[in-house]
Amino acid sequence: MSIQFDEENGDKVLVIHVSGTLVKADYEQFMPEVERLIRQHGKLRLLFDMTDFHGWESSAAWEDFKFGIEHFTDIERLAMVGEKQWQHGMAILCKPFTKATVRYFDHADAAEARKWLIEE
User: Fold this and answer.
1) Could you read off the pLDDT of 34-67 as tens digits, one per residue?
2) What fold does the segment set 2-118 form as a domain?
3) The whole model's pTM is what?
């Protein structure tokens, strides 16, 4: 599994590329970085790029759920970019667990996702 971070637009936009299968240890890397940016900038806008993403191990799914609860109001916009139908469904399922405005974009529309994130 791989997580790669890119900070954009004055660090208010965080691009997270995930691939393979997320495991609990991935959240140990991910969580402190996101929490640092929240402390530094307030609400964030996230682009969650799921290209070649296969899902979570059960312990990682629990960490993901806890992250959503802990940061319910810290994410302003969430653009989920994927290539599979289940990823689009995941974007719909996550909406009740965040105050963020959530939109799904097909991988071919990743540039549009970035544009949406930086709009006022």
Assistant:
1) 888 889 889 999 999 998 888 889 988 888 888 8
2) Rossmann fold (3.40.50)
3) 0.85
